[in-house]
Structures
1.
Amino acid sequence: MRIRVHHDAAAMAEAAADDIAGWLAVDADQTIGLAGGTTPRLTYELLARRPIQWERVQAWMTDERHVSDDHPDSNAGMARRALFDWVPATLHGVPFEDDPAQSASAYEATLRRVLGRGPVARPGLIVLGVGVDGHTASLFPGSEALTEASRDFVANWVKASAVWRLTATLPLLARARRTLFLVTGEAKAPVVAEILEGGGRNYPAAVVSHLARDPVWLLDRAAASSLTHTNSF
Ligand code: 6PG
C-alpha cells in the first residue's frame, strides 16, 4: 500500500489526475472505474485537459444512486459534466430501472462486456472515495452488499439514509489492477487514521484496501492530520 499526502485538495487532485493519466498512457484500452461524490470532481475536471487517447478509454461507475443520470444526484451525471462531456471517451452509466435490482443486473452484464476478458470482469484502475463512516463505493458499514461473494454489481439498501444504492461488490473491486483512494478534508481525518494506522479493518474502505492488489491512498494534509507518521509531498 502507498500513502501520499499532498498540501491541499487541489494538489491531491493534480496528483490523482497525473496517476490516472499515467495509467492510461501505458495502455489507453485499460478501463477506469470512477467514484461519485464530491472529492473526485476536480480530478475529473483536470483530466479533461490531459493529452490522453480518450477515444480508446472505457469508463464505468463504481457506484450510483438510484436515480436517472439526468438527476442532480447522479454520480455519472457529475462525471459527465466534469469530464465526459468534454472528451471522446465512453462512460458507461448505470441504467435506471424502477426496480434497483434490475438496474444492477443490467449493469453487471455491461461490466462483463466492457471489463471482461472471458466470463470475468477485470477492472483496470478504479477510483474510490471514502465516507466519514468508512464506506466506499456504496458499500456502507453493516449493509447487505458487503456480504456478496459472487455477484459483481448489486442493489444495496442503505438503512441510515433509507435509500437504494447501486454498487460494485468486494469481489469486483478486489480484481482491480490498481485502486486509488482519493480523500480530502478534516472531517475524514479520524476514519483515515483508523483505517491506515488504527487497525480499523471492519470499515468497508479498509476491507477494499486490504483486498486490493495495488492500493494507493492520495490524501491532502487535512485528511492526513490524524496520522502519526506520513511524509507530505
Ligand atoms: C457516492 C460515492 C461515495 C463517496 C463517498 C465520499 O455515491 O457518494 O461514490 O462512496 O465516494 O461518500 O464522498 P465525498 O467525496 O463527497 O466526500
Note: The longest strand covers residues 153-158.
2.
Amino acid sequence: MENKNFNIYDIDNIIKQELFNKLSSAEYMLWIDPLKLYSIDDSKLIYCAQDDKTCNTLIENYQTIFMEAIFKNKLPFNDISFIPLSSNFIQNNNESNNNNKPKINPFISKYTFDNFVCADSNRMALTSALAVAKNPGVSDNLLSLNPLYIYGGVGLGKTHLLHAIGNYLFENNNNLVVIYSTAEKISLEYFSSLSNFASNKNGYNITRQKYSVCDVLMIDDIQFIQKKKGLQEFFFNIFNDLYQSGKQIVLASDRPPSEINDIEDRLRSRFESGLLTDISTPELDTRINIIKKKISNSNIELDDSIINYIAEKVNTNIRELEGTLTKVLMFMKINNNTVSIDDVRKLIQNSTTSNSTVDSDKIINCVSQYFKISTSSIIGKKKTKDVVLARMFAIYLICEYLDLPLINIGQIFGGRDHTTIMYSRDKISNLIKKDEEYARRI
Ligand code: ADP
Ligand code: MG
C-alpha cells in the first residue's frame, strides 16, 4: 500500500473530526484530543497515548469508532494500535536516524518557503524563519534567534512560516525531532495531565518531557497562556529545558510579548530574549503578487483587471484574499471559465457581509434583545432559569459562528472555565436537535 502521498496531519485531522462529531466534547477532550498520530506502518495507524492504562482504555472503548471513522472516510488502513509515550518503540524510532521506516512529514505541505511571497510587510519574519530553518538553535553573539517570536494580526502568514520551517527541516534535516503545536492544545494536554495526576503521578513529567526532548519546538498562538499561572510555569520549565540545551524555540502570536496580559515577567522576558519580529498587513503590490502566485499553481487564467480589482478590495488579510480568490475560481468553473468585474464585486459583497460584521458583542446584544435580559446579566453570574438559558444561547451562537477558542469565549463570559463553555454549547446543540421550538429560536 502506498502511504507516501498521505499527509499524516490530514489523516489525523479527518479522524479526529469524525470522532469529535460522534463523542461528547468532554470525552473527546479527555481521550482523543491528546492523542498523537505517531506513524503509519504498512496499513496500520499507530497512535501515541500517555501511558499503558490510557492505551487499554482506548482499545476497549474507542478502537471500534476509530475503525468506523477510517472506513467511513475510505482511508487505506485496516488496523490501528495505541502505544504509550514511554515505549521502546517510540524511543528507538526517535533515536535512530537511519531506521528503514520512512518518517512521515506532519507539516502542511503547501505551507513552504517557496510558496511564501516575500514583501516589505513580512521580509524580516521570513528571513529569520529561514535562518532558523537552516541553523536551528544556532545563534551568533550579535544576533540571537532563540526564541524566534513572530507576531501579527490574523491571516498574515504566521502559521504558514512555522510550517515552512517544519517542511524545510523535514526535507533537509530529517533526523531532528520537530514539534509544532498550539498553546491551546498544549494547555489541554497539560490540564489533562494534571487530572490524571492522582492515578498516574508521572502524567505531568511525561507531558513535560515530550516537549523538553525535542530539537525544535514551535508553538503557535502563544497568547493563549495569559492568565493561566500553572500553565505558564509549565511553559517556563519547558522553555528552560530547551534553551539550556541549545534547542530552537519558535513562537507565534497575534501580539508582542509586552501586550500579553497577565503573564509572569520572567516568562515575558524569556520571550523577549531572542528576536521579535512582526508581520504587517501587505501592500497592494504584495496582494497582487500573492494572487498571481496562487493562480500560477492552478491551470486557470485570470485577467489582470480582475486580479487588481480583488487585490484592491480585499485589503484586510491574506486569508480573506485567498477565500475570495477561491470563490472567484469556483465561480469560473461553473461559468465556462469566465467572470466579470461585476460578478467579482457581488462575490466580495456576499462574503464581507457574512463574516466581518459578526462579533461576540453583537451576538450577546442580539440575544439580550431577544430574551429581554441585560447583557451584563448574560455575561454575569446570575443563575435564574431564564438568564441561564439566554447565556447558553449566546455561548452556543458564539461557538458556532465565531472561530474563537473556548478559553477566549470563557473570558468573554466573565472568566468562565472552558469546560463550562463546552457544556453550554453541547447542551443547546442537543436541545435543538431534539426540540424544534429551540431550533427555531436559535
Ligand atoms: P496567521 O497564522 O498569521 O493567522 P496563516 O499563516 O494561517 O495566518 O495564513 C493565512 C493564509 O494566507 C494561508 O493560507 C497562507 O498560506 C496565506 N499566506 C499568508 N502570507 C502569505 C504570503 N506571504 N505568501 C503566500 N501566502 C500567504
Ligand atoms: Mg495562525
Note: Residues 158-159, 220 surround magnesium ion (ligand 2) (CB under 6 Å).
